[in-house]
Amino acid sequence: MAILLSTKANAMADWRDALLECDPSLDIRLFPDAGDPAEIEAAVCWTQHDMAELRRYPNLRLIVSMGAGVDHLLRPPGPPPGIPVARLKDGRLTTGMAEWVLLNVLRFHRQDLDYRALQAARTWEELPAPETAERRVGFLGLGELGLAAARACAALGFPVQGWTRRPRAIPGIETFHGEDGLRAMLGRTDILVCLLPLTPDTRGLLNRGTLALLPRGAFLVNGARGGHLVQEDLLAALDSGHLAAAALDVFEPEPLPADHPFWAHPRVVMTPHAASITIPRSAAPQVVENLRRARAGEPLLNLVDFSAGY
Ligand code: GLV
What we know:
Order of helices and strands: EHEEEHEHHEHEEHEHEHEEH
Bound molecules: glyoxylic acid
């Protein structure tokens, strides 16, 4: 039996090699060269793979989505019914996101955009010293990625708070939930970090109304999905001076069209959905372990909960 591998062209070979390093006996087929469809027992694929295509494999018993976010699986037609779908929970993916969040929280906290502008103008000017203990960092989402990034900020001495779907108690982090909790947290957040899963409930959550609840001069950091943010509403909030700046890794659509105002906006810092990239060597062992479990009929790791949307 074989594994169908389907990801970005530049990642295919690394993934194949990493899977074979874990188990040299694996028969790995690189999409679109699947061979006999009846031989495919697992599909390891990423967002570009058409879920309808997976209905061609009559003996498929496991789908692994090669990332943290699963919003692409929630869109019709979705994965073939009845086939378990696992996602990745990977230490390197989690650390990568915490690094990217820290980079941007520190960039904004330490007035880096202002110092860069002063440097460009060859102006020697000291800005008021920022106070870490007074810079409140609020997280939307305290899942695998959000919690690690929140803890990294707390470890530096920032007051950290987080908003989650269900009530949660986490030592060292003040938590909020529900609509009232969202309003309460936004009203006292100087740097807002979004690491929510994208679901019908969270699409467009960062909009004119919610951004207006942030104190004047607040910053936005979005490492989740472009669909969380109403992009025009962010531009309006930046251009009116209500928000001071934003760091964005995700957009809708991706790639962001070359004429989009974010590219040249002096208060927008962009990365091309590269905040945290899955490293095949780090993530391959859990894929191989899940295949072993699927074959043995044992409980699978990191299964996607389609009713929750993550
Ligand atoms: C990347 O965006 C991921 O979901 O892993």
